[in-house]
């Protein structure tokens, strides 16, 4: 397995175990030990002093914790740092990288970071566990989770019904209940996936889980072919991803600061996707020296091709958009499959007050 750009010899496949599923598989992951903070993209240290409005001419120090090592999927945030968009909003933002042992929810609740890169399912789980965090924007309109098949063996996601599929155990509380409910997938199709593509490469009749901007490139490098990619979001799997979360207390006590951070972050994403992304990319590579230009370019290409950031509601309401309907649909689907409790007030997981202003609101 080629190692691509991941630190400490971790493969991009292992990365996904933690990125999309780790927190959910352990509830909100509060049982995990809090690890030391990873290197950040600015000189500013983490600061919990976000509750106060900046004095005239001063910048308010903010720390945004990501869910993994720096990469193209975090590019808009790095772009906002690199191009001064956060400073224009009166903010001195430090991006604190996540990793396999960095528990973002724990750091957020403990005040070590002010905002965190979250995920819709984990936000609803937090409500069930009484953790007072709230989602204030959703950068990814589509979850980049995919299933992959060998060329010529499947034309649609439905074609994978009844066939062996290599999935992680955490799929049981993320996308697998959706596939079971909508397409009739059965549990006897599942094969253990230990983040090694070998079994998939050896058997053309199997499929494998993956992440849109990483695994297909890894398979091409190792297997010498482009896999057939099925983005599960395009088949009705609706969780928001790469969200912005903060404490509910901050939303209530200083909504102006939350608004400035959200607005500047969204502007950073427009700049990264439709302008020159090189300023953000340089900071990404500074934080994560093992990141390659090839992987960054591939990530940007796939985000654009599949409309991960700017599609659907975001095209009308602006990047970061969220709707009541999307949250309800996702909750209803997963609650019907037993992932969420039927009595959960999922509306406590988010607020729409900081988004849906339309693309013109974020022109630089």
TrEMBL record:
Annotated GO biological process: thiamine biosynthetic process
Domain of life per record: Bacteria
All copies of domain SsuA/THI5-like, residue ranges: 72-277
PROSITE patterns noted in UniProt: TAT
Protein name in UniProt: ABC transporter substrate-binding protein
């Amino acid at each position: 397995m080629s190692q691509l750009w991941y630190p400490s010899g971790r493969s991009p496949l292992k990365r996904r175990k933690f990125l999309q599923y780790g927190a959910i598989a352990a509830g909100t992951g509060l049982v995990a030990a809090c690890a030391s903070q990873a290197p950040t993209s600015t000189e500013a240290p983490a600061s919990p002093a976000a509750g106060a409005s900046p004095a005239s001419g001063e910048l308010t120090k903010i720390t945004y914790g990501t869910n993994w090592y720096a990469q193209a999927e975090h590019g808009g945030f790095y772009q906002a740092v690199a191009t001064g968009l956060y400073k224009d909003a009166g903010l001195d933002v430090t991006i604190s990288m996540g990793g396999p042992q960095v528990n973002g929810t724990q750091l957020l609740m403990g005040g070590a970071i002010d905002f965190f890169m979250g995920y819709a399912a984990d936000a609803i789980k937090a409500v069930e566990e009484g953790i007072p965090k709230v989602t204030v924007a959703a950068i990814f309109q589509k979850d980049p989770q995919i299933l992959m098949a060998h060329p010529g063996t499947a034309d649609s996601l439905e074609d994978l019904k009844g066939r062996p599929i290599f999935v992680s155990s955490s799929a049981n509380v993320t996308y697998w209940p959706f596939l079971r409910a909508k397409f009739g997938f059965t549990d006897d199709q599942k094969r253990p996936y230990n983040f090694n593509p070998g079994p998939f490469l050896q058997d053309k009749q199997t499929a494998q889980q993956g992440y849109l901007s990483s695994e297909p490139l890894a398979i091409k490098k190792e297997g010498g072919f482009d896999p057939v990619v099925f983005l599960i979001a395009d088949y009705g799997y609706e969780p928001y991803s790469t969200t912005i979360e903060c404490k509910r207390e901050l939303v209530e006590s200083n909504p102006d600061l939350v608004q400035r951070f959200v607005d500047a972050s969204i502007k950073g994403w427009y700049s990264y996707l439709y302008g020159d992304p090189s300023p953000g990319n340089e900071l990404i590579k500074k934080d994560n020296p093992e990141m390659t230009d090839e992987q960054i370019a591939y990530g940007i290409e796939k985000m654009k091709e599949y409309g991960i950031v700017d599609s659907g509601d975001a095209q009308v309401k602006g990047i970061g958009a969220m709707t009541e309907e999307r949250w309800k649909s996702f909750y209803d689907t997963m609650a019907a499959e037993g992932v969420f409790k039927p009595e959960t007030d999922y509306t406590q997981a988010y607020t729409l007050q900081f988004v849906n202003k339309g693309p013109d609101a974020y022109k630089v």
